[in-house]
Amino acid sequence: MATFNENLIQAVDHYIPFSSSGSFIVALNDSEDKYQYDYDDRVKFVISQERVSDYLSAASFINSSGVEMCCIQHEFGIYGGSNGMHLLALVRALQVPYTIIFHTVLLSPNPEQFSITKKLADKAAKVVVMSRKAVRMLRDIYRIPTSRVQCIPHGVPDFEKPDAELTKQRLGLPKGKTLLTFGLLGPSKGLETTIQALPEICAKHPDTRYVILGKTHPGIFKNSGESYRESLIRLAQQLGVEDHLVFISNFVSEKELHNYLSACDIYVTPYPNEAQITSGTLSYAVGAGAAVVSTPYWHAVELLKNNRGMLFDFNDHQQLSVVINRLLDNPTEWKKLKQNAFKYGCSLRWPKIGKQYGQLFKNHVKEEEAPLLSESTLMQVKSSLSRTMTWNTLELK
């Protein structure tokens, strides 16, 4: 989500200049020490995750800052309180319109999750989701009128497509066929399914390697260390395919990630259940023009239709091996899949997505601009900031 927000700011900046318009960031901090993270000067206020008074102070700060629109990113597990209930204190106190972007919409919410989602959506000037499925779920489950919901797809980097073979060499990827999965590692990713499919794949294509790019999820690492990654290594050893499994435990830049996606032969998302309404990793893969093979979770079914990718059943490693072998055996079909993905991915590039957000924000700004307050007034809340701020009032005009 941090990457999403950074990309969103940069993309919208072309239509609503961030600094000169007086825009700023309110950061959510998972530490009691507000000095722990070295935020840049765009961050003007910091909320401690579990301190409800910070949410109220943030609302007061936003109200007095002179901004005309607040954009809130929502994901369960991020905000403080039971199911993130502290966020309701902020939105109740806001006196400017807000747009809320739901990164997750739950199919079977508990009563509290339902209530929080409903209240956040009802007070919003506009609700944004990233798939048509999410629009229907908000309508059918949460009774949010579709007229109040806008579907804007997940944006993807606007990079040129590199030469695949040269990029593969530069990245040091093994020779032969490369299967790739990237993202934070954890049991919810279903990576076992791909490893279980490797014996059948390697029997027909012995030069195949499965590259898993990414570090273990911080929460999982904190509680269990690298036990999940080690379990995947043991599974590969038991199946006799340990030499075909490659871990790259790094955080990589978006540019490098785009290179990996462009260089791989097949990108695999083996998530074990359907309840994923948005997948940034899948969007990135399609945006890079990768040949994608995925389980039919909600976002994949929508994003990979019209022959932009291929699907296999949840936890079905045998079907996965058949699908991958079919693509590796048929270069024409494989190339067509990549071409379809790349063509559609061009519509997901951040400059185009940013234009949609820019227009959305302009359509729902506060009708009467609040008077901008003086530097001395704004500095009254500096005790709630992460560090002492130097205000340039010219930036707030």
TrEMBL record:
Signal peptide: none annotated. It comes from the Bacteria. GO terms for molecular function: glycosyltransferase activity. It holds the Pfam family Glycos_transf_1. CDD domains: GT4_mannosyltransferase-like. Residues 167-343 form the Glycosyl transferase family domain. Residues 83-156 form the Glycosyltransferase subfamily 4-like N-terminal domain. Gene3D superfamilies: Glycogen Phosphorylase B. This is Uncharacterized protein. It comes from Parapedobacter pyrenivorans.
